[in-house]
Amino acid sequence: MQPTMEEFDSEDSGVQDVGPQINVLVVQILETMSVLLLRIRQKLLEISILICVILLVFWVALFLYGSFYYSFMPTANFITPVYFFYSRTDCPSPHHSVCSFPVANVSLLKNGKHQVMTYGQPYRITLELEMPESPANQELGMFLVKMTPYSKAGHIVDISARSAMLHYRSSLLQALGTVVFSPMLLTGASEQKQSVIVELYSEFKDNSYNPTVGAIIEIHSQHIQIYRAHLYIFAHFTGIRYLLYHFPLISALIGVMSNFTFLSLIIVLSFLQFNLGGRRTRGKAVMQQEENNEPDDLNDQSEPQDEGKAAESFDDRGYNSVEVEESIPDVGVEESDDDSRELAEDEPTCEAGDGEMILRHRNLSQNMLQSSQALTDTTDKTYQNSFGVCSSC
């Protein structure tokens, strides 16, 4: 069966009805997508700002901890080589080629500018001597090591003297050691020497009024033999410095997180204070504006009421005057002094009562109502009084 025209018309009408609905649906979808994209963009912006603030606070916290560590922690250790020299070689006796003791002048400044020791910090100062196990050193026995720190002006700060000697080894032990370590001794990997450590100061504290810039080290022995020597300065930490030096990672983590928390708390409190202050300022401005608008509103509300009352009174009085005018016959009466006195007595008076003007009218006398001229004057005065005009106030 072929479709009829009516079926085609119904299908066309159905398609025409669905078209606007599809357009409306597409518009709603586009609007929803635009709003959603706008919200996503706003959220991404807020998240990026938050991440930037967090990174900035973290770097500031790290910088504060680094500055604190650099300023609070003194030099932990300082190692410098010691080079000995002889002040005199012109000995009068031919049996002694050297007449003076080995002496060394050591600088206690880093890079020749900065002081090594901090004021009030105790330091342990030791001297390490590498000495060969030669017959001369074995026969030397005990010897004295002397250290004399001095200030920039050349004044002696302190004097320390300690004794030292080689460790004793018997001839049999030396022979066995030579046999056992002969391969390394032959290849040069090992040497027959000893390291003698002399502790010159156990707790040396620098004076802030007379800081130490150098020291003179002297060994009281003319026949001592030394390979090399080093001066070691170690800081003896206690309290917080001990924790910072021996547990650096944990201390850094705790310090940075503490600074981060403190700075974050300050930023949050400042933000809340700023918002509360802005809200209070806006609230005060709104209250002041409302207070300033209240009198104007009262005046605006009172004026229409007064005008309405005046209009009503005018209409009532006009109506009454018309009725009186119609009810009174036209009778010509001459004006007299008595009528003028009665007219003056019938004028309205203004009295103040509770801050408002009360308009009172006296009853018109029968004699004044009989004259048309008096009726006209009374009508004019009633018109003026209906608008609140008061000549006597």
UniProtKB/TrEMBL annotation:
Q: Which UniProt keywords apply?
A: Endoplasmic reticulum, Lipid metabolism, Membrane, Transmembrane, Transmembrane helix
What is the membrane topology listed in the Swiss-Prot or TrEMBL record?
Multi-pass membrane protein
Decide whether keyword Membrane is in the record: yes
Q: Could you tell me which InterPro entries the record lists for this protein?
A: Seipin (IPR009617)
> Where would you find the membrane-spanning parts of this chain?
44-62, 250-272
GO cellular component, alphabetical, reads: endoplasmic reticulum membrane
Q: Where is the composition biased (Basic and acidic residues)?
A: 306-318
> Where does it mainly reside?
endoplasmic reticulum
- Entry's Gene Ontology BP terms: lipid droplet formation; lipid metabolic process
Region (Disordered): which ranges?
A: 285-355
Q: Where in the cell is it found?
A: Endoplasmic reticulum membrane
Domain of life according to the entry: Eukaryota
The protein's matches in CDD domains, at most eight in alphabetical order, are given as:
Seipin_BSCL2_like
Extent of Acidic residues compositional bias: 291-305, 323-349
Q: Does the keyword Transmembrane apply?
A: yes
Q: PANTHER family attached here?
A: BERNARDINELLI-SEIP CONGENITAL LIPODYSTROPHY 2 HOMOLOG BSCL2 PROTEIN, SEIPIN
Name under which the protein is recorded: Seipin
Which organism was this protein described from?
Answer: Cyprinus carpio
Q: Could you tell me the gene encoding this protein?
A: bscl2l
